[in-house]
Amino acid sequence: MTEMERAYGGWALGPRAELEWVWGSYEDDAEPDIDCDVTMVADSMRMWREETRRTDDALARHSTLADKGGGNGHSVRWNLTKLVGEYARHNGHADLIRERIDGQTGE
Known about the structure:
By secondary structure, the protein is an all-alpha fold. It is built from three helices and no strands. The protein is 55% helix and 0% strand. It is globular, with a radius of gyration of 16 Å.
């Protein structure tokens, strides 16, 4: 979600600039080779919080949902819709994992 905060939040709604991904390049749709473990949680959460602050700061500079950012040229509304969709998708993934662990299904 850190990358999505940047792509549809801080970068997209900020001034025109080259997009630099948080965790490195995604050239040719290649996934970065990252083995995740518990030692990465604190740094990952810190980076996510930084990106959400950048999104909040960028949003504060816009007066309407129709305003366009410089990053991707889409409106605030368009970018927020994309960001909400990303959160919903990833929350669904987490719910599936939790369901496999405890067997409980949602309402």
